[in-house]
Design a protein that fits this description.
This protein has about 375 residues and is an alpha/beta fold. It contains 14 helices and twelve strands. The protein starts with a strand and ends with a strand.
């Protein structure tokens, strides 16, 4: 079955579309494209994320995003030379504007996508898991398990998007052995600081270049690490509510120079990931490999810090295993949509905390 997966994450850098062919456990990407958000739309999403806002703004954005998602699917197919009519299903995560563990809201109207493309859409994946006692996140671990499990090696699949989340896959794991959680910030804090430093001219630290010019403030990292989130056992999830504008403002109040703040935020991301692995993963399994995807996989500073903080663990990218580092989450929602279409569960209770596996999402024919 050919399925298009749509993902737009908390980093708000754009719309990822992956068109994949699924045959049993085999998943092959046939086209992938990222469509950047227009600045006005990105600002509109930020304006309604994690704050009191007017319902009219959310409603308008919900429909506008549906239009943008549909356009992005068509453009990905056109540029990838994949006939749109060959796509049988679309899986759309939507844009998260609020996530609190016990409730969540993603926008991007599925009815608009289905109407513009003529293709059935599976959307709104998280609420069913929450209804079953989970946190609605993370959901990608099901696909990590499907694609990256190994009979002999213990692997941690790490996605560094706006938030960093990991999937722990013991050697020879069955589904019930897999567990996952959000470790804390991924690129979100770094991106917020870079946007402030460059007055909006840059949205991220390309290649970690700004961080390389700064000095890391260990005292600030120790202060930030006192947050109880890093001591909480999984399952647990995080979002812009914890690491958005308020967190960035808190870092700025330290009085450090911009490059020092960015260098410190970069190390802080790596420290929180490594702490999560040391505290909650290594006591339960051997960790041979850390396999990284997401925007953070392009930041050599983060990867170098992870390698230094986790001696004895080989750090690789998903591209080393034939999975595009930028496409993985869009690919994941194509696979999850396929599961839903086949009326099969798509969550892992060990990852989300749900009482049982459930069929996720809503189908718009």
């Amino acid at each position: 079955m050919r399925v298009a997966g749509i993902m737009s994450g908390t980093s708000l850098d754009g719309i990822d579309v992956a068109v994949v062919d699924i045959e049993g456990r085999r998943v092959r990407t046939v086209a992938f494209r990222t469509t950047p958000y227009p600045l006005k739309l990105r600002a509109g999403i930020l304006a309604v994320s994690n704050r009191v806002t007017h319902t009219a703004s959310i409603s308008r954005l919900n429909f506008e995003l549906g239009e943008r998602y549909a356009r992005a699917v068509k453009e990905t197919c056109r540029l990838g030379r994949v006939p749109l009519e060959s796509v049988e299903l679309i899986g759309c995560h939507g844009q998260t504007i609020y996530h609190e563990g016990v409730n969540t809201l993603q926008i991007g109207e599925a009815a608009v996508i289905a109407e513009r493309t003529g293709i059935p859409v599976v959307s709104d994946f998280r609420p069913r898991d929450i209804a079953a006692g989970g946190q609605g996140a993370p959901l990608v671990p099901f696909v990590d398990y499907l694609l990256l499990r190994d009979a002999r090696k213990g692997r941690v699949a790490l996605n560094i998007g706006g938030i960093a989340n990991l999937t722990a896959i013991p050697a020879g794991a069955e589904q019930d052995d897999v567990f996952a959680f959000d470790t804390g910030p991924g690129n979100m804090v770094i991106d917020g600081l870079v946007a402030g430093y460059t007055r909006g001219r840059q949205q991220y630290d390309r290649g970690g270049r700004i961080a390389s010019q700064g000095r890391v403030n260990g005292a600030l990292i120790r202060q930030l690490m006192r947050n109880r989130y890093y001591r909480m056992p999984p399952p647990k999830s995080a979002g812009r509510e914890q690491y958005g504008a308020e967190f960035v403002e808190r870092m700025k109040r330290s009085g450090l120079r911009w490059p020092d703040l960015i260098a410190t935020a970069t190390v802080f991301t790596a420290v929180t990931i490594a702490a999560g692995i040391e505290k909650f993963v290594k006591p339960r399994m051997r960790v041979d490999e850390l396999i990284v995807s997401g925007g953070g996989a392009h930041n050599p500073r983060i990867l170098a810090h992870l390698a230094g903080l986790l001696p004895g663990v080989a750090v690789a990218r998903t591209s080393d295993f034939g999975i595009d580092v930028d496409a993985k989450e869009a690919l994941a929602f194509a696979v999850l949509a396929y599961q839903t279409w086949r009326r099969r569960p798509g969550n892992l209770p060990g990852a989300t905390g749900a009482r049982r596996p459930v069929v996720l999402g809503k189908i718009t024919p």
